[in-house]
Amino acid sequence: MKKLISALMLATALVAPGLAMARDITIETTMVRYSGHAAYVAVYLTKPDGSYDSTLWVAGRKTKYYRDLPGWISAASTGGQITLDGITGASVGSGETLTVHADLADTLLDAGYQIHVDTAVENGFQFSDDAVIDLNSAPATVSGTGYVSKIAIGL
After folding, report:
1. Structure pTM?
2. How many domains does the chain have?
3. Which CATH number fits the domain that encloses residue 94?
């Protein structure tokens, strides 16, 4: 009997991680056409209660300009520090599209999580929540309010 229980526990331990599958989500942020410098863009995830969950991508390499993304920076920094290992890239120019791939757990889909995009341009404007889209299991597109023309999610 003990061997049977041990075997069942081992089988459960091997199968359970597979139940929390991750899915590759593609987030495409298309910028409007404007004159001026390329935009700094932060793409991040919030929980159903609106609190910050994680940063998915930051476009713009010079960290001194991250302060120009005040919505994201205040949510993402803890104790004045922020860690962005491997999730940064070049800023995004007028009319260009930023494509971000993120492995997100299936349990986040249709659970009230949202993807936010904040933007800022040197000698231009700053837009917290330039675009916000629900993280759903169906593909969706939403228009932005500033430098973002549209944001689309594909599964």
Report:
1. 0.85
2. 1
3. 2.60.40
Domain annotation covers residue 13? no
User: Is there a contact between 147 and 32 (Cβ–Cβ < 8 Å)?
Assistant: yes
> Nearest 10 degrees: CA dihedral of 82, 75, 102, 18?
100
Strand partners, 112: none
pLDDT band at 61 (very low <50, low <70, confident <90, very high): confident
- How far apart CA 70 and CA 19 sit, in angstroms, is 37
Q: Where are the beta strands (DSSP E) in the chain?
A: 22-31, 39-46, 52-59, 88-89, 97-105, 114-121, 126-134, 140-143, 148-154
Q: How far apart are CA 117 and CA 106, in angstroms?
A: 21
5-28 pLDDT, tens digit per residue, is 444 444 444 444 445 588 999 999
> What 8-state DSSP symbol labels residue 78?
B
Q: Answer yes or no: is 15 within a domain.
A: no
DSSP 92: B
Residue the block writes with tokens 């599964």:
155
